[in-house]
Amino acid sequence: MTQAASGPSKARLLAIIATIGPPITVIGSVLVYFGWVKADAEAKSLGLNVALFGYTTQDYVRFSTMHAAIPLVCLLVVGLFWLGLDRRLSERLRDGRAWPKVRRIAGVAAVAGFVLAGGTLLLVLLDPDQTVLFAPYVVAAGVLLAAWAARLRRLAQAVPAPPVSIEQRAGEAVLLLGLVTVLLFWGAADHAQAVGQRIASDLEQHVNSLPEVELYSTERLAIGAEGVTEEALGTSTAPLYRYAGLRLLDLSGGNLFFLPDGWKAGSGTVVVLPNNGTVRVEYGP
């Protein structure tokens, strides 16, 4: 392969990377952030700090994919629709007779995007407590629609517009990507916090569905949670204590997390023990 032939190939590869790289990075960051906010909200509802669980980045992504599937699917569907529509309108731009129609469509779309984004943001600022959960996503959609429509209208001008430098295009892309990224993080935080609080609330009603456990220890653990019973089984020379009335909540970060039977959010106790082999755990149904 000659150097002249490899030049366009490298340029095309760099263009592809520049096109798909930022969206993938943003989506990955939003997934991690969503998982962390969800875990943090759930931990606070339990009266704990999320750091006690020792979750990893992979855990946060796993948490987010379980609850952010619907927004992601909607985003992909809208993206596919947008790609098809953009391709069709771009083909129409090759025919100069279609320019007036494309300009009208783009003008209406730009106004609709601006009204959608501005109106939703205004509602959030005026009454944040009554705002729908996905309001930041709606604002992001309006911003993208307005920006796309403005680009189409510029391309469909009968009189060619002054050429835009690469620096200006890059600046516009960075500002647009930054604004949309902030809105996505905002929406992910609201959604994840609601999910975490709902899970903690459901946990109170279904704590008895968690696996039942009995703890055996050669040292007295002195668990004071209401509903937990202690029974001495050993002798004075070989002590052994059994604790019943606990449910397994989680095993993470080198710790075991238990909830007592009848645990209540806001007032219940979470029992945390190190998973280092000093306590034997027997699991029930």
Structure classification? alpha+beta
Ends distance? 66 Å
Which regions contain 5 or more consecutive residues with pLDDT less than 50? none
Helix content: 55-70%
Kindly report the oligomeric state of this protein.
single chain
What Rg is obtained from the alpha carbons, in whole angstroms?
28 Å
Shape: elongated
Q: Number of DSSP helices? A: 6
Percentage of residues in strands: 5-15%
Structure in words:
The chain has helices at residues 3-45, 57-67, 69-92, 99-126, 135-155, 166-205; strands at residues 212-217, 229-232, 241-252, 255-260, 271-274, 279-283. It is α+β, with helices and mostly antiparallel strands and 285 residues long. Strands 1, 2, 3, 4, 5 and 6 form a six-stranded antiparallel beta sheet that branches. A hairpin with a 2-residue loop joins strand 3 and strand 4 (255-260). Helix 1 (3-45) runs parallel beside helix 6, helix 4 packs antiparallel against helix 5 (135-155) and helix 5 (135-155) packs antiparallel against helix 6 (166-205). The longest helix has 43 residues, at 3-45. The model has no long low-confidence stretch (mean pLDDT 81).
